[in-house]
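Key result, reporting period 2: structure in, sequence out.
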């Protein structure tokens, strides 16, 4: 028994020790990863990647708007990110006459670059661990609340005493579920302009059909520029601002890639959950994902049909549809992947090992022995609340604009109740422009249909005990259709104009108007039922789970002291590294790691909304005019690797062994989207655009000579 388990231990831990899995802290590479990275072929040192004393690669990476990553590729602040990261900016500059989504956009000079209010680029200046100071004074018997309030107090004190420049920001974030804390010093630029984008038929080629799918042929890139004040520091938008002069920008390599090559992705992954117990994975697979997918099935069917019928709808709903479809498809892939690699079974096996280690040591047993059974109990208890919570969130918070607006208005009124006129004004100041932007892309006739479909599902699927009293009895399906029509006809929230009127009202009058509004009334009923019957228990169980998860992580680290653990993604800068590699998606099928322009042509469907190919690109293909970007008369388009990435890593630069830019991360393969909770090297792959395709499009397709000159200056010597 003993021998067997030791063997099993080695076997099970082996994949965990493989380099590809993990989102590593840039400041700890020296200590944890450098050797491994160099063994995999990296020719740099950890300091080349992250150094606080001299310019390093990290100075060429920014968090793009807080939701994506971008990198600097010229001495004049030119930023490379994904087309889908720039999407809403591009959309906001587009009209039916100047449709930059459809036709692309290339600024011929600095003056033609387009400002994007609200868009930011944030640099990490440095990070340091401050765990001891943050947890100072914590005691064993404290409640979660006491614990948190002490931590908040400590954090406030540390922030106050941390020296920093006036233009810098300081924050402290938890890592490892709060087992560690890091202080992050950042600088945020606020004048970010659109420089160039290919048409959607290149930048979003394959659209939702190909999203999350390999083989892929999307030129998913766009160009922006950071502008700074005269001192090269952050400044609000001004026509007098100057292109930012970076400390560091990336060198580009056109050498191309081969299977097995080292790849490094440097960016801002948002959120992962890699240390869930088997019961947590089961919860995602059986409770969370099915509800989300089911609700989105319904709303996507409505929106998609309308978009295909009408080009105005298509333009207005493009971004909303893409966002909703993106999560929907990812979760479908996640469920399939988790089943396929038997994630629950493998986690369970791993837990047996953990338990075995505990049973061999009474102290460990005492400290951690209750954790796994407790997880099981809590997830079982959570399930019904989670289900209603997910239904509620999808229905009122995500898919139906009218209800989401009602929710925001209710928040505004609550803020007035709790913090008076000042709080009201503050929130209103943010809410008003936000809603104005939202309603530019809002069509009541479509929202109404989405509402009707989701309301029906909501009433059918959510247990009576979690619904407002009597709500089910009230509506037959005919009455439901009547209700939706009436809501959208009579609600002040169903048009931009009538919302505009609302902003003139005093808080008291606003409350009165809203309380008489049918959509607001309905939302309030739903919200109150949710708050009274679901939210309390949901949050109580979730917070106990969080506590337990932290103890579990401490347990894992204690029981397996030799393993290198990486913290879950938390929206901070990370390094992931791996290699270019194909995979086997199904029995007897092998995917190669690189695609070519010929593959774009294979998918070409004239006039199709997803797979049309611009005429000029077809001509370039016919003539094989690839310049320095081709490889044996073929033009590389995308490639895949084993880098462990997630949402937020979009736009992350992909660097080769020497730190030169070879690609742009933008997606993962469908079979492997479960890497957010369970990374498996056999099928988890990230998808990247080849930098040669990016430059080819800029030079040969767009003929943006000014940009070619600017970027070419940054080209690495070709040795
Ligand atoms: N799947 C990628 C990501 O998660 C790309 C999404 C944008 N593209 C789209 N067709 N929706 O962000
Ligand atoms: N497209 C994703 C993003 O916007 C990256 C894909 C993923 O989730 O890995 O960040």
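The corresponding designed sequence is given below.
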């Amino acid at each position: 028994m003993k021998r067997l388990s030791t063997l099993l231990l080695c076997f099970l831990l082996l994949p965990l020790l493989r380099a590809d899995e993990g989102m590593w802290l840039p400041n700890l590479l020296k200590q944890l990863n450098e050797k491994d990275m160099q063994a995999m072929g990296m020719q740099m040192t950890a300091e080349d990647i992250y150094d606080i004393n001299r310019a390093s690669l990290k100075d060429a990476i920014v968090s793009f708007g807080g939701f994506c990553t971008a990198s600097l590729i010229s001495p004049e602040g030119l930023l490379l990110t994904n087309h889908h990261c720039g999407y809403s900016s591009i959309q906001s500059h587009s009209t039916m006459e100047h449709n930059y989504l459809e036709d692309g956009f290339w600024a011929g000079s600095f003056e033609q670059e387009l400002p994007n209010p609200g868009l930011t680029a944030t640099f990490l200046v440095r990070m340091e661990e401050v765990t001891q100071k943050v947890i100072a004074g914590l005691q064993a018997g404290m409640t979660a609340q006491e614990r948190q309030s002490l931590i908040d107090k400590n954090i406030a004190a540390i922030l106050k005493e941390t020296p920093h420049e006036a233009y810098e920001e300081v924050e402290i974030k938890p890592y490892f579920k709060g087992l560690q804390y890091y202080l992050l010093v950042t600088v945020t630029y606020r004048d970010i302009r659109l420089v160039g984008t290919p048409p959607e038929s290149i930048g979003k080629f394959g659209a939702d059909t190909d999203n999350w799918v390999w083989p892929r042929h999307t030129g998913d890139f766009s160009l922006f520029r950071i502008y700074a004040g005269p001192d090269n520091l952050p400044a609000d938008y001004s026509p007098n601002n100057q292109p930012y002069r970076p400390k560091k920008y990336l060198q580009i390599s056109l050498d191309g890639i081969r299977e097995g090559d080292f790849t490094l992705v440097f960016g801002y992954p948002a959120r992962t959950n890699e240390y869930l117990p088997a019961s947590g994975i089961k919860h995602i697979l059986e409770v969370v994902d099915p509800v989300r997918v089911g609700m989105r099935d319904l709303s996507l069917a409505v929106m998609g049909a309308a978009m295909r019928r009408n080009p105005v709808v298509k333009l207005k709903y493009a971004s909303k549809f893409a966002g909703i479809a993106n999560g929907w498809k990812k979760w479908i892939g996640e469920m399939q992947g988790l089943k396929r690699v038997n994630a629950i079974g493998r986690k369970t096996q791993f837990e047996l090992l953990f338990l075995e280690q505990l049973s061999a040591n009474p102290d460990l047993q005492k400290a951690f022995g209750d954790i796994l059974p407790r997880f099981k109990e809590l997830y079982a208890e959570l399930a019904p609340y989670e289900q209603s919570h997910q239904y509620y969130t999808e229905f009122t918070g995500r898919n139906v604009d009218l209800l989401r607006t009602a929710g925001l208005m209710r928040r505004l009124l609550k803020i007035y109740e709790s913090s008076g006129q000042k709080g009201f004004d503050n929130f209103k100041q943010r809410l008003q422009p936000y809603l104005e932007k939202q309603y530019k892309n809002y069509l009541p006739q479509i929202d109404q249909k989405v509402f009707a479909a989701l309301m029906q599902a909501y009433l059918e699927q959510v247990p009576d005990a979690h619904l407002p009293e009597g709500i089910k009895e009230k509506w037959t399906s005919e009455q439901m259709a009547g209700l939706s029509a009436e809501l959208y006809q009579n609600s002040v929230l169903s048009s931009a104009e009538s919302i505009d009127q609302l902003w003139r009202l005093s808080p008291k009058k606003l409350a009165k108007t809203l309380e008489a509004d049918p959509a607001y009334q309905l939302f309030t009923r739903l919200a109150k039922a949710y708050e009274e019957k679901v939210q309390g228990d949901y949050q109580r169980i979730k917070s106990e789970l969080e506590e337990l998860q932290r103890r579990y992580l401490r347990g894992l680290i204690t029981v397996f002291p030799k393993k290198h653990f990486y913290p879950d993604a938390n929206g901070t800068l990370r390094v992931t590294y791996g290699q270019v590699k194909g995979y086997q998606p199904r029995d007897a099928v092998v995917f190669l790691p690189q695609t070519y322009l010929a593959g774009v042509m294979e998918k070409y469907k004239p006039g199709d909304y997803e797979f049309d190919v611009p005429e000029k690109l077809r001509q370039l293909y016919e003539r094989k005019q690839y310049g320095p970007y081709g490889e044996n008369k073929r033009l590389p388009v995308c490639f895949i690797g084993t880098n462990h990435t997630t949402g937020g890593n979009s736009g992350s630069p992909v660097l080769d062994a020497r730190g030169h830019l070879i690609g742009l991360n933008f997606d993962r393969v469908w079979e492997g989207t479960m890497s957010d909770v369970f990374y498996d090297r056999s099928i988890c792959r990230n998808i990247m655009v080849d930098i040669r395709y990016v430059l080819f499009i800029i030079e040969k397709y767009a003929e943006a000579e000014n940009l070619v000159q600017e970027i070419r200056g940054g080209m690495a010597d070709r040795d």
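The CA atoms of residues 229 and 492 lie 42 Å apart. The chain has two domains: 2-120+190-265+570-712, 278-559. This case is discussed further under Risks and Mitigation.
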